[in-house]
Amino acid sequence: MKPASLSEIRRGPAQIWNSAPQLAQIPAIQLNSLVPAGARVVIVAPHPGDEVLGCGGLLQRLSTLGHPLQLISITDGSASHPGSHVWPASRLSVVRPQESVEALRRLGMPLHSLKWIRGGFRDTGLAAHEQAMSQFIARYLQPGDVLFTTWRNDGNDDHDAVGRASAKACSLVGACLYELPIWAWHWPARESAMIPWQRARKVRLDTWSVARKLHAVHAFASQLVGDPAIGLAPILAQVLLERIRDPYEIVLI
């Protein structure tokens, strides 16, 4: 089965991910089982916003527990509206990093102490730069770090490439890797064997964490609107916003 395309995800029916019977059977995992006390956590996001969509609740809990945090944004996300005169890449390259700052502020992240690295890689086509990404990510890793990034089979080319590059970097340095499905939850049939259900674990979130995460996602104003003049729907479609309300995040261990 081929994963849904971005355009299909944008138009997809709400709450489609809940159709998979395996979802209810995913066991919960305690945060201290994922991240040892005192460990540094590195989040590698292919595009601005992926860190919130993938683990916005987890970030809040890690920050509260005092874990040192480092965010690596591989691209600036400026190719999210191809062909748009309303949202050209030149505008988005400025706007999207600003939206990320506001989103992290809404999550309650300590912006004064959060280490934030911007990779400067070009949005889309990251698979062609996988080796360079691996070296770049490894440069900022330390042995014993715990790294969260997008799943290598998420169904988005950039997400997949960053997942593979992160895995290689972790292997080189001796860091621990966890993967986050984002687009994968909007495939037409998650009951497919393509989802590694045996690796999936739920990190429970309280009501306040879910609310802050949803509030943070709404900081990405450019992603909440498309460009009707060229038939471009919003990237953060209603189907994605509904999923943010789930009282858990799923990590592949």
TrEMBL record:
Domain of life: Bacteria
Gene Ontology MF annotations: hydrolase activity, acting on carbon-nitrogen (but not peptide) bonds, in linear amides
Protein name in the entry: PIG-L family deacetylase
SUPFAM superfamilies named among the record's database cross-references: LmbE-like
The organism of origin for this protein: Pseudomonas fluorescens
Pfam family, one: PIG-L
